Amino acid sequence: MPIQSPPGTLPSLSPSAPSSSAPPSPSSGGLWDSVDGLHAWLDAHGAVDGREALLLRVLKLSEEVGEVAQAVIGTTGQNPRKGTTHSWDDVGAELCDVALTALVALRSLTPDAGEVFTRHVAKVAARSLGQDAGAAGQERRAAPPSR
Length: 147
Fold this sequence. Notes:
The protein is mainly alpha-helical. It has helices at 26-29, 31-45, 50-76, 88-109, 113-129, 133-142. The longest helix has 27 residues, at 50-76. The protein is flat, with a radius of gyration of 18 Å. Mean pLDDT is 81; it is low at 1-26.
């Protein structure tokens, strides 16, 4: 279900990869296939490699988080000079960019990124939700979002 957007919004400001060298989409091979494809694409087209590439991919997270902040400020119209410049859909897209950037950075750190991430999510869920971790996830998916 799309997030309701206030009137007078602009489309997402995130650039997209060129179509000629686009990695596989999540629907064509799964999330981790796309993460692997993006990782390989960055390795092939990056200006630096090795440790420096890894550090820059981690630093890229800060840039993406800043874009989330910019979108939230633009959605709420908190900059009087600019007014309302973004929608909640833009905020959602920027959050997706943060998540994807983190997954690609994790993949740059280890080829077992999917397993590392799955184990970490399980630990966090067990610590936070205890024995109800599985049931809470099912209930949450069934309930509509509260806005």
